[in-house]
Amino acid sequence: MTPSSGPATLDLLSPTFRVLSPEVHAAAAQHWYARTALGPAILTSADCVAFQNDRRLHHSGGTEHMLAQGITDGPVADMWARLVLNIEGPDHHRLRRLVNPAFTPTAVDRLRERIRAIAEDLIDGFAADGRCEFMSQFSDLFPPRVMFHLLGIPESLQPDFLRWGQDIAFLLSYDVAANHDRLAVAIEGICAATDDLCAHRRSHPGEDLLSALVAARDGNDQLTEDEIRAMVTVLVLGGQDSTRNQIALGLATFAEHPDQWALLRDKPELAAAAVEEMIRYNPVDPILWRIAPVDVDIRDLHIEAGTRIWLFAALAQSESGVPGQPLPFDITAEREPHLAFGHGTHYCLGAYLARAEMVEALPILARRMPDLALDGDPVYRPELSGFVGPVSLPLKFTPS
């Protein structure tokens, strides 16, 4: 791109800011990056990919994410620092290696029948009504039930873990300070419950992932209690908040494209392609970030050490090559790979599981919720809230 002028300035903290807004499209036409008070925003597909691959940049926010919000110590800062997504080097590889077996394609494929059963059970609760509030009646419950089954969380504790997981999601947002006490309570609850469950697994081991973590704690790998608590926290977070919001964003997108919903109903074999397209078109993480640990110069952009770089993934994934004409939503089209799930050593551990959940659920939803449409205006979370998605999503359809 040859810029016609210097970079524009964007206000990421504005309550009305959206990555796919006319303002951001205009900034992308003006320059390959924009300035913000929080660090540079990268606006083109090629540059977002290049920044993801640049080894000089770190994947996680590390301590900078908390320091930027005035959080320097305490349980929230401590838990953030222990999450595997913020750990680099040998410890990162060791922690991932211990849980990787639970997320291989072979392991996940064994869950598919259970995934379908959970989806059908939830839809049974509203299919005859012809309308639903999709978040509370399906999306908030579906991915957590899968993760709770994988971890081995007893049914009596699942409502608590569901609430804690939704609160823990604020760790990824730019609202940590405003939700600090809520986060601290959730962290305390999930850590105490994890300790109790681990004590029980030592005398009553099972086939679940929590038993495997306990075995690693007592074996040669020497997982610490804090590492187990942090691993359960990140699995509960990643296993519910990202997927529940992505499914909901997908349904909101299909409600605005009824021809695509009818096509999926008639051709359920398109489910895998539909999942990739809805992630590309309306991603749960429209903004990714990188941190520059040292000063970095990239073309006409000087990045000082400690600066956070914002990659506008949703904008990059909409590029068609024709200015002002973003790619349409089409589940039959061949697309370039999207930027979701990260890259390299920090590639999302649960990517295959998340895809499997959505691939199994979408054809069931399309079959049992024909003629899908919005039943009111959805309410969405802000772009810097971590994983973006609806707070509420009223839908209507022909009762099945």
Task: Explain what this protein looks like in three dimensions.
The chain contains 18 helices and eleven strands. It is of the alpha+beta class and 400 residues long. The strands form four sheets. It has a four-stranded mixed beta sheet. A three-stranded antiparallel beta sheet has the order 3-11-8. A two-stranded antiparallel ribbon has the order 5-6. The relative contact order is 0.17. The mean pLDDT is 90.
Helix-residue proportion: 40-55%
Do you know the CATH architecture?
Orthogonal Bundle
Spatial strand order of the main sheet: 1-2-7-4
Calculate the terminal CA-CA distance, rounded to whole Å. 50 Å
Q: What is the level 1 CATH name?
A: Mainly Alpha
Q: What class, by secondary structure content? A: alpha+beta
Number of domains: 1
Provide a brief overview of the structure.
This protein has 18 helices and eleven strands. It has 400 residues and is an alpha+beta fold.
Highlighted features:
400 residues, alpha+beta, 3-stranded antiparallel sheet, Cytochrome p450
Task: Give me the secondary-structure topology.
Blueprint: H1 22-30, E1 33-34, E2 41-42, H2 45-53, H3 62-67, H4 75-82, H5 89-99, H6 105-109, H7 112-124, E3 131-133, H8 134-139, H9 142-151, H10 158-168, H11 180-203, H12 209-218, H13 225-238, H14 241-255, H15 258-266, H16 271-281, E4 287-291, E5 296-298, E6 301-303, E7 308-312, H17 313-317, H18 351-368, E8 373-374, E9 379-380, E10 390-392, E11 394-396
Parallel strand pairs: 2-7
Antiparallel strand pairs: 1-2, 3-11, 4-7, 5-6, 8-11, 9-10
Helix pairs in contact: 7-18, 10-11, 11-12, 11-13, 14-16, 15-18, 16-18
